[in-house]
Write a structure and sequence with these properties.
It is built from 10 helices and 8 strands. The protein is of the alpha/beta class and 260 residues long. The strands form 2 sheets. Strands 1-8-7-4-6-5 form a 6-stranded mixed beta sheet, with helices on both faces. The two termini are 28 Å apart.
C-alpha cells in the first residue's frame, strides 16, 4: 500500500504523491470528512492514495474552500437539488462528454452540455463550428444566452455541466459546485478528435487549435475569462493515463468528501 506521508516538496498546487489506488481510497480519506477547517495542504493529504504527482492537484485558490451549507437551498420558487453539481472544463478530446455521461449515471444527475447546444445551433444554421463562432463574435447575445442558460441549470443543482465559461461564472456568482478541469496532452487530444471527426491527427490538431483561439477570444470579450487560467477550478486531472472510469472514480471521491 502506498505511503500516506506527503512529499517534503509538496506544495499547494502540485502534490508529490504515490501511485494512484482508487480502490481503498476511503481509508486514506476517512478523516477528510472533518477537514473543513484545515488548510488546503492538510486537506490534500486525504487524497494521497489516488493522486499521482503531476496528474492530479487540488486548487490553491482559497475561494475554492466554501462553507458547507444545507443540502437543499431555497432559490426563488424552486428548491436546489440535494444532489451534487459538477462543472467540467477541458479542451476538445479531453473526455468531457464521456466523463459527464458516466457521472450523470453514477449520481443520477441531469447532463447539460454547452458544447452540444452550440453544435446543434451551428448545425441548424448550416455552419461549421468556426463559422458559427465568428457569427457569435458579431452577435454576442448568442453566447451570452447560452452561458446564462448554464448558470440557471447550475442554480437548480443536481447536474453535471460542461461549458468553457461555466466554472468562471459559477464561482463569480458563488453558486455551489465542484469544478473540475480535465487536462490532456495536445497530441492525445488530436488523436481523439481525429477518430471522432474522421480526420488525420495533423488536421485535427490544427482544427482544435483554431477553434480554441476563437473560443478564447469570444469569452474574453464577453466575460473577461482567461481560458488558460485553471484557478477557477477546484481540481485539475490529467486524463491521458487514466481510463474514463478512473477519472470518474477520482471525481466521485471529491464529491463524497465535501469538495462540492
Amino acid at each position: 500500500m502506498p505511503s500516506s506521508k506527503p512529499s517534503k516538496n509538496a506544495t499547494k498546487s502540485d502534490l508529490s504523491v504515490a501511485k494512484p489506488r482508487v480502490q481503498g481510497a476511503g481509508k486514506a480519506t476517512t478523516n477528510g470528512v472533518k477537514a473543513e477547517k484545515r488548510k488546503l495542504e492538510g486537506r490534500a493529504k486525504d487524497y494521497q492514495s489516488f493522486a499521482p504527482s503531476n496528474h492530479f492537484r487540488l486548487s490553491s485558490n482559497p475561494t475554492s474552500r466554501r462553507r458547507r451549507g444545507p443540502a437543499t437551498q431555497q432559490s426563488g420558487n424552486s428548491r436546489r437539488s440535494e444532489k451534487p453539481t459538477i462543472v467540467l472544463g477541458g479542451l476538445a478530446g479531453s473526455g468531457k462528454s464521456t466523463t459527464a455521461k458516466l457521472l450523470a449515471k453514477r449520481f443520477a444527475l441531469r447532463r447539460v452540455s454547452a458544447g452540444d447546444m452550440f453544435r446543434a445551433m451551428a448545425k441548424e444554421k448550416r455552419m461549421d463550428l468556426i463559422e458559427f463562432g465568428r457569427l457569435c463574435e458579431k452577435k454576442t447575445s448568442i453566447d451570452k444566452a447560452l452561458d446564462l442558460r448554464m448558470i440557471d441549470e447550475a442554480k437548480r443543482g443536481g447536474a453535471v455541466l460542461d461549458g468553457r465559461a461555466t466554472a468562471f461564472l459559477t464561482r463569480k456568482r458563488k453558486i455551489p459546485a465542484l469544478r473540475i478541469w480535465l487536462a490532456v496532452d495536445p497530441e492525445v487530444s488530436a488523436k481523439r478528435v481525429a477518430k471522432r471527426d474522421k480526420l488525420t491527427a495533423k488536421a485535427a490538431l490544427l482544427k482544435s487549435a483554431k477553434r480554441e483561439r476563437e473560443v478564447a477570444k469570444r469569452l474574453k470579450l464577453l466575460w473577461g475569462v482567461d481560458t488558460t487560467d485553471t484557478s477557477y477550478y477546484d481540481a485539475v486531472i490529467q486524463t491521458d493515463d487514466y481510463s474514463p472510469k478512473e477519472v470518474v472514480d477520482i471525481i466521485a471521491q471529491l464529491v463524497r468528501y465535501g469538495r462540492h
